[in-house]
Write a structure and sequence with these properties.
Layout (H helix, E strand, L loop, with lengths): L4 E2 L2 H11 L10 H8 L2 E2 L3 H9 L7 H9 L3 E5 L5 E5 H21 L8 H15 L4 E2 H7 L4 H6 L6 E3 L13 E4 H4 L9 H16 L4 H8 L3 H9 L4 E4 L5 E4 L15 E3 L21 H4 E2 L4 E2 L2 E4 L2 E9 L2 E6 L5 H18 L1
Parallel strand pairs: 1-8
Antiparallel strand pairs: 2-4, 3-4, 3-6, 5-7, 6-7, 8-9, 10-13, 11-12, 13-14, 14-15
Length: 350
């Protein structure tokens, strides 16, 4: 058998951009776009809209509002105990895939050692009984569970909750209204178990971020590699290598564009997943600029823009316009492209 092909950083960069629909905007429904990109990180509500705007042709804010209201997509605490926007079809498999792993990780934290799985399960039962088919605000949940912020913050590890619109949207950014996922989305299918969920996580990650090492996949999913390895072993995958010899796995027939494919200017929201550690191999975030986007002292991120597939500056919306701050001097053609794309983004804010 021939040795696996070695992929350069530039090849991985273009593969990532293509799969994230940042080389060419996609046409289609929001649920399908979310499935293609491997979910959308959504700690800050406007990030969902900006992220989809940069990836979808003709995207308008009302489209996401309508999809949330109709429960075609949902916001929930999933991978890495972080809020993600996912399609309705993906919610339950992903929840099943990460459930055990994230509970174990939650209980291991030093400041939670006084809390047990039994105690958290009891709090979840109490909340589920009170919720019924209704919704509750975070303040109400906090009061119900005894005003213990640790329990309030962790109960969604034992009870699947989703954020209900209009909270967590562009117009009402604070995501403080919750419903039981089984009520809002319908009950979990019986056939969905941890292995099936991890299988979907593997496909979604590789489809949106691959080719990738198993360690990066585990980092993104918030799971120990040992949970993922048996599932990966049973899947039909192709293999490549990094230049340092690290093995990469990938879906059969997933796109690998020519590394010289032109990459257009694109604007990214705060906490866009292609800038986080699990995607470092693609070089989208030059290491010399990382501290300008992610403050190492605080869990903070600022919006960035890409030039030729790499972070080249920051942006902000101010007085009806998108204001850019490049890290280096840009040529005239790039400035024109940046202005045109910025005007499109300003229209999204209008």
């Amino acid at each position: 058998m021939a040795d696996p092909r070695t992929l350069s950083e530039q090849e991985l960069n273009r593969a990532l951009l293509a799969r994230q629909m940042l080389l060419e905007r996609a046409k289609g429904s929001i649920p399908k776009v979310l499935e293609r990109m491997g979910t959308l990180q959504a700690q800050y509500a406007p990030s969902m809209y900006v992220g989809l705007h940069s990836r979808m042709e003709g995207f308008e804010r009302s489209q996401l509002d309508e999809a949330l209201e109709a429960a075609r997509v949902a916001q929930g605490t999933l991978m890495r105990a972080t809020i993600h926007l996912v399609s309705k079809a993906d919610y339950w498999p992903i929840a099943a895939g990460v459930r055990k792993g994230r509970r174990e990780a939650w209980l291991r934290a030093s400041y939670r050692r006084d809390y047990s799985a039994k105690q958290m399960a009891a709090a979840a039962r109490k909340l589920r009984s009170r919720l019924g088919t209704e919704t509750m605000k975070r303040k109400e949940i906090h009061e119900l569970l005894g005003s213990d912020s640790v329990v309030t913050n962790g109960v969604n590890m034992w009870l699947d909750l989703v954020r209900v619109p209009p909270s967590g949207t562009w117009e009402r950014r604070r995501a403080d209204l919750y419903s039981a996922a089984e009520h809002w989305l319908g009950p979990s299918p019986e056939k969905v178990d941890e292995a099936a969920g991890i299988g979907l996580l593997v496909r979604r990650y590789l489809g949106g971020f691959g080719p990738a090492p198993v360690a990066d996949l585990a980092n993104w999913a918030g799971l120990h590699p040992r949970r993922i390895a048996p599932v990966v072993k049973g899947m039909k995958l192709r293999r490549f290598r990094l230049e340092d010899g690290t093995e990469l796995i990938d879906l059969p027939r997933a796109p690998l564009p020519d590394p010289e494919t032109p990459a257009p200017v694109r604007f990214l929201p705060t906490w866009d997943a292609i800038l986080i550690a699990h995607a470092r191999r693609a070089g989208v975030m030059p290491e010399e600029h990382r501290s300008k986007i992610f403050d190492p002292r605080y869990p903070q991120s600022v919006p960035a823009f890409l030039v030729n597939g790499r972070v080249a500056g920051t942006w902000r919306h101010e007085k009806g316009k998108v204001v850019t701050e490049p890290f280096e001097k840009l040529d005239a053609a790039t400035k024109r492209e940046l202005k045109a794309e910025g005007d499109r983004l300003a229209d999204l804010h209008a």
